[in-house]
Amino acid sequence: MYETYGKLNEQKDNVIVLTHALTGSHHAAGFYADERKAGWWDDLVGSGKAVDTDKYFVISTNVIGSCFGSTGPISKMYPYDSEYRYKFPVVSIKDMVKAQRILFDKLGINRVEAIIGGSMGGMQALQFGVSFPHFAKKIIALATTSQTQPWAIAFNKIAQEAILNDKDFKNGYYDSEYIKEHGLSGMAVGRMAGHISFLSHDSMRRKFGREYKKDDGLFELFGKFQVESYLEYNGINFTKWFDPLSYLYITKAINIFDLSRGYDNIKNALVRIVSELHLISFRSDMLFRPSEMKEIADSLTSLGKSNHRYLEIDSDYGHDAFLVEVDKFEDYIRSVLDGEKS
């Protein structure tokens, strides 16, 4: 599944690809007729914005394994009427990128101006650079890593166990319509843990402080602080629009991501990147720390390569800054696309 914005020129050389994070989709910008919330990178993509749809033909792709249209574990297993469920194979970030590359071949697009992605989208962007070195002129990877580290894997483990141990999950053979209506409490708990990793101490303090729910008593055992109420509300709502099996498969893909797999070491993988590479990290990101992205830049420098730039954004928001604080890096991305930074 994919969504496009702007117009493809005759030369087909104005293409920009967007790759999404864990719970994202192909719907990166604009509004659908029946929705109140815009696509996940609407602040960055559109007419006159940093990724200017008056100039560029933007393609936002949905990964395989997702629940937003691309083939995933709840898709019908052709030619049968039954769903894949656990018969769906474990997919990797490399598999996701290969599937996208097939899509672009079908569209007659053999080279793009840029690939831009954050978090898991950044993993895909880096994988494109290694697997298809001459496909993208520029790669912009934000808030990501070359190898998923134990901190991130641990948060995903909490979510996985919470889903698997929920009786309504029914060992993967749940009623999807029931989950959409009622949610899945185990998955909600896992999402709460994940959401904490997306923020930071400062952003949570700024957003919630020590505010208590006005209709809860302070000494009621189950009375809630605003932060608790927020996590509960967002956790259960999330489970009504994101499929639990897709969550298990995609977090597995994130956990096993290692850009060096298939090569002797990470440098042997990175040396294959010939695109102009821009690495953007965020100071308070606890999920994929700035040092992880700096290591990529340092490795490329040690290889004698000069096709990269590393930028650390001064942000106290946490990992989700790449989605929320677009104003802090949009000018940089605009200048990269305009050819002013290389």
For the record, give the distance between the C-alpha atoms at the N and C termini, rounded to a whole number.
32 Å
The overall strand count is 9
Q: How large is the share of residues in beta strands?
A: 5-15%
Total count of domains? 2
- Give, in spatial order, the strands making up the sheet with the most strands: 1-5-2-6-7-8-9
Q: What is the CATH homologous superfamily assignment of the largest domain?
A: Alpha/Beta hydrolase fold, catalytic domain
Quaternary structure of the protein: single chain
Given this structure, which CATH class of the largest domain is correct?
Alpha Beta
CATH topology of the largest domain: Rossmann fold
Return the string of H and E elements.
EEEEEHEHEHHHHHHHEHEHH
The CATH architecture category of the largest domain equals 3-Layer(aba) Sandwich
Name the average pLDDT.
96
Task: Offer a few descriptive terms.
single chain, about 350 residues, Rossmann fold, Rna Polymerase Sigma Factor, Chain: A, seven-stranded mixed sheet, two-stranded parallel ribbon, 12 helices
What is shown here, in short?
The chain is α/β, with parallel strands linked by helices and 342 residues long.
Characterization of this structure:
- The chain is an alpha/beta fold and 342 residues long.
- It has 2 domains: 2-148 and 257-337, Rossmann fold, CATH 3.40.50.1820; 152-252, Rna Polymerase Sigma Factor, Chain: A (Orthogonal Bundle), CATH 1.10.1740.110.
- The chain is 37% helix and 13% strand.
- The chain has 12 helices and 9 strands.
- A 7-stranded mixed sheet has the order 1-5-2-6-7-8-9, sandwiched between helices.
- Strand 6 (112-118), helix 2 and strand 7 (136-142) form a beta-alpha-beta unit.
- The longest helix is centred in the middle third of the chain and has 15 residues, at 150-164.
- The mean pLDDT is 96.
